[in-house]
Amino acid sequence: MGRIRILAAAVVLALLACWPTCEVRGKETDDVLTSLVEFLATLAGGDPAAPQRIGWNASVDPCAGTGVASQWGKTVTCFDTTETNAGHVKKIELEALGLSGTIDAASLCAAPALRVVSLQGNALRGELPAGVSACSGLTHLYVDGNRLSGPLPGSSVSQLRKLLVLDVSRNDFSGELPAGLSAVHGLKRFIANDNQFVGTVPDFNLPSLENFTVSNNNLTGPIPQSLQRFGSESFSGNAAGMCGEPALSACPLPPPNDETADQDEEDKESKSRRTRRVLMYLGYALLGAVILGFVVYKICSRKRKNKLGRKSRGGKVKDAFDSSDPTTTTTMTASKSASAASAYSLPASVERSAAAAPSTSSLVVLRRSGTASVTSTAAAAAAKELRFEDLLKSPAELLGRGRYGSSYKVVVPSGAALAVKRVKDASVSDDEFRRRMERVARARHPAVLPPLAFYCAAQEKLVVYEFLANGSLAKILHGSIESSQAPLDWPARLHIAAKVADGMAFMHSSLRGDGSGSYSSSSTPSTPSSGEAATDGANANAVAVAHGSLKSSNILFTASMEPCVSEYGVIAPPPQLGGGSSRSSGLRADVRAYGVLLLELLTGKCTAAQGDGAELARWVTSVIREEWTAEVFDRALLSRGAAVSEQRMVQLLQVAMRCVEASPGEAPPTMREVAGMVNAIVEEDDRSLSAEA
Ligand SMILES: *[C@@H]1O[C@H](CO)[C@@H](O)[C@H](O)[C@H]1NC(C)=O
Ligand SMILES: *[C@@H]1O[C@H](CO)[C@@H](O)[C@H](O)[C@H]1NC(C)=O
Ligand SMILES: *[C@@H]1O[C@H](CO)[C@@H](O)[C@H](O)[C@H]1NC(C)=O
Fold first, then answer.
1. Does ligand 2 come within 6 angstroms of the Cβ of 234?
2. CB within 10 Å: which end of the chain, N or C, has fewer?
3. What is the pLDDT of residues 487-511, one digit of tens each?
4. Distances (CA, A) of 550 to 487, 569, 660
């Protein structure tokens, strides 16, 4: 610890020593400066005095001097002395200055290294000119809260390949949403609410999109599958013809992706029907009545088997949401809109089917139609056909052993890789476990890995997931030095923290069970009632389902390296752990575990296996008390751009501490509140960090 302290002191000294000598010569040419001043004059409606009033002077280089602060005042920010573009203008933020002119993109984009342009909250008129494509390094463009009109210049906006944020909300833009934005792969926020956009919403294929808001326009048609993960508030207030998930009225026809899924289903169905018919004809022709009898017998017995399997498994639940039959589209959409109250709830159907013979039929396959989940279609297809014997027969590889069981990688005959968690937990009844897994399977969020199937017998429970080959957060954070993985930097860790918080908050609110968010309600332990399975989610007697074992080894990475929470609800820890009522103690314990996860992300230190992170929290508290906050952070975090982000690191640390130990007299935060705090930090980070040059 002492060594780290000396190091930190050395860094501070080095920075201080550098300060007076790190002077930068401004690098913008006279032409650029003249152009920028012209841009501002046009923005002010041709008022030649405006630039002077705001402090822009073409005969003074804004970026000559010691660093970020410019000679043109607060509206201009330069690159830091340490950045490659030092001496150039990085940000122009002309916000709420009452500017009522037009945007002269050609003059603006004369600045060669511009990253951030914000013109929000003025009274700008005219169009967003196509010339903005010349600002090729732009990462953030805010023109919200003006009177801009006309169509968005789609093809030129889509040339801004580095764009992270595009906010055109609260203007008078019309025309269609630019489908070309799909080419801007890194786009995180597209905000276009309160305009007059018409037409349908393009199927933007942008996995990194975090906020997509097109409410209060005049859009019509179905919400594309890829955007259904955004909440209803993203789409509200559009033309009556807009429809579909997450919360609007059902579309007359299913959206394109659903259609193809159903099409596949139908194809398969008709194919198998055809095969059967051909078999029968063959039977007639070749072997006559004997074979025919055999075929009929075969079909009948298979049907009866299915019937038996389904009946043995509580008909009530099945009736509530079984819509395996592709012809019952109406039932499907009805159940869709009924369950669409929460943002990510897309379960079109969860079918339970007995895949194996009656004697070993305890394997329950949780099948969902629709593809909005993180699970790959190959794994989902494999799970659909899964039989218990396959799991037993296929080669298995031990992935890890934990306190409550082990996990294995199993490659089933179809070639798909599955992860099987084997839980040794006799404290939960089969029925309760089954109900829990079914509820977890129905609440779906892109940051939570859904169970594909489960098996339960008295002493042993298996839960089947898709196998994700990119490893866990624990492995990346604490993996061996030789591993090829680069250490996670601050933006990556913050992203993981936010995604996990979102997923957990969503799961908590969909699986809370009693509809109230209070952690201190009812102190009597609620027992699952017998009727619970029938109505589930909305049932007042349902017990909240907590994750139970949130930790870095349960944060996995998808093929696109997005974090994904695994093993949700597999383990129900003993209720006394979190204190409080049994209904909510599990949720409280999750919040605590999330806090420990944040500490792990921030410090890069391993949580002691048996200490539940208490050790780590104590260490962090003691270090903070001595006001050496920077010392707790992982060195990998401090190496790059540290000065810029440290404030946000401290904020995240404070969130972590609140999760781990709420101060006396203060209610512990709920997961939803925690997610709000983390996302606020993300937004701040997005805006003030703007972009890596
Ligand atoms: C711009 O700055 C120069 C040098 O500081 C000064 O002489 C000149 O008056 C300024 N021009 C305006 C329009 O403020
Ligand atoms: C998306 O951004 C808008 C505008 O900044 C904000 O009002 C909204 O709350 C955000 N939505 C989400 C889900 O973050
Ligand atoms: C909205 O769209 C509908 C159908 O395209 C059109 O009839 C209506 O005039 C539009 N309303 C506005 C305010 O643009």
1. no
2. N
3. 788 888 999 999 999 999 999 988 8
4. 22, 10, 13
